[in-house]
């Protein structure tokens, strides 16, 4: 049987086996027991994952793909199909830590990254292919045009490494843009404990008007009086590191207590 790529699911099937191997080899496969592949399609990554010592699960919502995988990869027992990655409760499926991998649908890229952040305690690492622009934004550093909300929020929990670029001609059907493969390695920054909601609020509000100094950009928030003349407030969001945002959040919380 053949699997037809479905536009509404954002499917573009990778056809280059060498690239598939490179993506899989991006994972360390230790010390965790499980790997969850998101959107396996026709199994171009799955076949290499099943050669590894870890236990491979797949998150797939396309019934045609599921039937294809069951037919061609019998190592994938029925229990290894978990459904919609964005909706599953990882702790219900996995008794321990689980790495995540996939050629992710472009239309839910950010949602996938935020799901990983929300479950950072259970996800030690991820290797994934995204639209190149999203991959670059995730890995971006301060004082660059790509650095923004996504960069800061992901890098608060993971070290991000841009691995390589993938061109359009190795997919069926070819996407209209290039892709980028990145690796996330868990390294949650100190100072987030109990401050995560405020941290995210400051980051999102600060970058909401990224060309303005934070003294203006954060006006809609209830800034503690003692922090209004803080050096942080004289900067633009794009000039500040992840640690700068975390430290300012800690000071804000302390000023409110």
UniProtKB/TrEMBL annotation:
Enzyme Commission code(s) on record: 2.1.1.182
Enzyme category, top tier: transferase
Highest taxon of source: Bacteria
CC annotations in GO: cytosol
PROSITE patterns, A to Z: SAM_RNA_A_N6_MT (PS51689)
Chloroplast found in the keyword field: no
Locations listed in the record: Cytoplasm
Catalytic activity entry: adenosine(1518)/adenosine(1519) in 16S rRNA + 4 S-adenosyl-L-methionine = N(6)-dimethyladenosine(1518)/N(6)-dimethyladenosine(1519) in 16S rRNA + 4 S-adenosyl-L-homocysteine + 4 H(+)
InterPro entries in alphabetical order: KsgA/Erm, rRNA_Ade_diMease-like_C, rRNA_Ade_methylase_Trfase_N, rRNA_adenine_dimethylase, SAM-dependent_MTases_sf
Ranges for domain Ribosomal RNA adenine methylase transferase N-terminal: 19-188
Keywords: Cytoplasm, Methyltransferase, RNA-binding, rRNA processing, S-adenosyl-L-methionine, Transferase
UniProt binding sites for S-adenosyl-L-methionine: 12, 14, 39, 60, 84, 103
HAMAP family: 16SrRNA_methyltr_A
Protein family membership: Belongs to the class I-like SAM-binding methyltransferase superfamily. rRNA adenine N(6)-methyltransferase family. RsmA subfamily.
Record-linked NCBIfam families: ksgA
The protein, known as: Ribosomal RNA small subunit methyltransferase A
Organism: Cloacibacterium normanense
């Amino acid at each position: 049987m053949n699997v037809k790529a479905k536009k509404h699911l954002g499917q573009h099937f990778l056809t280059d086996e060498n690239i598939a191997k490179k993506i899989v080899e991006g994972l360390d496969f230790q010390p965790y027991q499980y790997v969850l592949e998101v959107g396996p399609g026709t199994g171009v990554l799955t076949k290499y994952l099943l050669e590894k010592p870890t236990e491979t699960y797949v998150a797939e919502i396309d019934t045609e793909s599921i039937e294809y995988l069951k037919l061609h990869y019998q190592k994938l027992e029925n229990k290894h199909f978990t459904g919609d990655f964005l909706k599953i409760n990882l702790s219900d499926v996995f008794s321990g830590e689980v790495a995540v991998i996939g050629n992710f649908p472009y239309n839910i890229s950010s949602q996938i990254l935020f799901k990983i952040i929300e479950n950072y305690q259970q996800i030690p690492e991820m290797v994934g292919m995204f639209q190149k622009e999203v991959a670059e934004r995730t890995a971006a550093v301060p004082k660059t045009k790509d650095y923004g909300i996504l960069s800061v929020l992901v890098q608060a929990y993971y070290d991000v490494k841009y691995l390589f670029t993938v061109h359009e001609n190795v997919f069926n059907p070819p996407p209209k843009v290039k892709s980028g493969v990145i690796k996330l390695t868990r390294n949650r920054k100190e100072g987030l404990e109990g401050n995560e909601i405020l941290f995210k609020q400051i980051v999102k509000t600060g970058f909401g008007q990224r060309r303005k100094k934070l003294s203006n950009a954060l006006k809609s928030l209830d800034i503690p009086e003692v922090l209004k003349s803080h050096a942080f407030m004289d900067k633009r969001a794009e000039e500040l590191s992840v640690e700068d945002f975390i430290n300012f959040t800690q000071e804000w919380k302390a000023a409110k207590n």
